[in-house]
């Protein structure tokens, strides 16, 4: 069950630089904010540089925000995000049982990317590890800082 929206609006979960106060938030100027949300503990969050993306199959509850967008506004955002080549827009489950759309990458696309272990994009600096680095030891963490 998706969040209630007007007309044909689509509910989008964002968890990266599209969030309020982040550098790409202006891309959501045509969207209607619905408030904060958290995913079910079934994803990972990876840092792609200027943006992040969910990775299905993880074990993290990712913090983010919900927005309602008209189909044409979502289509423009899809182009910006590189959907369907760089990112896939998929249906995700929220912690409260609702569903929303979100941008994700396949696990193989996230290899070598930094995982945001906290699940909170705003806390990613200093709280990330090399992709696949759950439980990574000090040598792996050191090597990641050197690259």
From TrEMBL:
InterPro entries referenced in this protein's UniProt entry, alphabetically: AIG2-like_dom (IPR009288), GGCT-like (IPR013024), GGCT-like_sf (IPR036568)
Pfam families: GGACT
Transmembrane segments: none
Top-level taxonomic group: Bacteria
Domain Gamma-glutamylcyclotransferase AIG2-like: 12-123
Protein name as annotated: Gamma-glutamylcyclotransferase
Organism: Polyangium jinanense
